[in-house]
């Protein structure tokens, strides 16, 4: 059974006349008769009683008439959904993000997109920076929102810079430097640093942080390297050292009480936050959200 047979059946059922049904469908009466005959053979029932004077629906035909209308309506709805999904008006997009992105203006852009495309489902998942890139390359994420310390790690990928954030020094609230309005790398020369990066610094975060120290001839002690921000905050709260982070991570510190965030000079040292995606990704919903990320 195909939709043409159903359409032909409905035309005859409504006209109760094969000739008028054929004219309505812009086909020959023979074509209508053949399609109805084939449909009846497939169903194993007679749908019409035909005489020289009239055509009437059989009891089976009456049931099939109501069901077939619903069938065509359902098929039309499916086709509409498929077309909308193909255009990106409906669908889904998987978004990976780094810790702290919720404290940036990116969330307002996401909200604006959601208002304009409420039928596109957004699935969010938080990753460490290194896991973010892996999730993009293995297809787990369509789009990632991440800090960028070195552009070379984005080679072969598409990206759009969304914002720049200055650096802050995060340290225990009872630390002797915690009350300062600003700090320099020279002020941190004798401090133990806990760096927010992978153990081997695969994404260049540690080099970006240490570059300023090297330029001033300072060689601070590095106590630990970890991507897990909560681990860093735990160690700081235990008065084990200090760290340098992008300023968007200062917001959640306000409620912790045991930690302070102090701007790091020079303010020109900044971390870029970018939206990153693969040009090989064919998800149409991805390309609907990109114009909203600025």
From TrEMBL:
SUPFAM superfamilies attached to this UniProt entry: Periplasmic binding protein-like II, Winged helix' DNA-binding domain
InterPro entries: LysR_HTH_N (IPR000847), LysR_subst-bd (IPR005119), WH-like_DNA-bd_sf (IPR036388), WH_DNA-bd_sf (IPR036390)
Stored Pfam families: HTH_1, LysR_substrate
Highest taxon above the source species: Bacteria
Keyword Transcription regulation: yes
Keyword vocabulary terms for this entry: DNA-binding, Transcription, Transcription regulation
Domain HTH lysR-type: 1-58
Family from the record: Belongs to the LysR transcriptional regulatory family.
Protein name per UniProt: LysR family transcriptional regulator
Organism field: Brotonthovivens ammoniilytica
Upper taxonomic lineage: Bacteria, Bacillati, Bacillota, Clostridia, Lachnospirales
């Amino acid at each position: 059974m195909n939709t043409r047979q159903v359409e032909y059946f409905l035309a005859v059922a409504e006209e109760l006349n094969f000739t008028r049904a054929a004219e309505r469908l812009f086909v020959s009466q023979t074509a209508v008769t053949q399609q109805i005959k084939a449909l009846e053979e497939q169903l194993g029932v007679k749908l019409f009683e035909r005489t020289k004077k009239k055509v009437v629906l059989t009891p089976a035909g009456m049931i099939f008439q109501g069901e077939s209308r619903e069938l065509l309506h359902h098929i039309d709805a499916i086709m509409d959904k498929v077309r909308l999904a193909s255009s990106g008006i409906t669908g889904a997009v998987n978004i990976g993000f780094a810790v702290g992105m919720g404290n940036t203006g990116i969330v307002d852009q996401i909200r604006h997109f959601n208002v304009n495309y409420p039928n596109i489902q957004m699935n969010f998942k938080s990753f460490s920076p290194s896991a973010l890139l892996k999730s993009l390359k293995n297809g787990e994420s369509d789009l990632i929102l991440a800090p960028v310390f070195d552009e070379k790690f984005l080679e072969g990928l598409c990206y759009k810079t969304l914002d720049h954030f200055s650096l802050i020094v995060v340290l225990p609230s009872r630390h002797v430097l915690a009350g300062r309005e600003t700090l320099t790398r020279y002020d941190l020369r004798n401090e133990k640093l806990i760096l927010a990066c992978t153990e081997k610094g695969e994404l260049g975060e540690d080099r970006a942080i240490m570059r300023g120290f090297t330029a001033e001839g300072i060689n601070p002690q590095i106590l630990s390297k970890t991507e897990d921000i909560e681990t860093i905050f735990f160690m700081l709260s235990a008065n084990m050292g200090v760290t340098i982070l992008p300023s968007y991570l200062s917001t959640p510190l306000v409620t912790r009480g045991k930690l302070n965030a102090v701007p790091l000079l020079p303010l020109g040292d900044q971390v870029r936050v970018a939206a990153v995606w693969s040009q090989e990704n064919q998800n149409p919903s991805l390309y609907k959200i990109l114009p909203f990320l600025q």
